[in-house]
Specification:
single chain, about 100 residues, alpha+beta, Arc Repressor Mutant, subunit A, 3 helices, about 30% helix, disordered N terminus
Length: about 100
Amino acid sequence: MVRASSAISSGPVSSTGSGFCPSPTSLTARESQILRWLHAHRARAVSRGELLENVWDSRGDLQTRTVDMTIANLRQKIEQDPTRPKIVTTVKGVGYAWGDA
């Protein structure tokens, strides 16, 4: 698992030493921003609206699947088993969290 927010960056990401990526991958800038935001607020779950406002710089009350689709794509890249996420988890009725927040 990533241990520090400074380790999260866009571009190639390698599993060497961290054990969280199945293979080297490239994250988009938006995916990196999501990981940074979730890590910075890892003590709690964050809502889709909060991610829209702080990562997309959009209104948080927009009805869109953009956040969900980006999280799904991100999980494909960083989770060993995207159907059972351990890094970016879903908190039902709230949004997403870093690990088991």
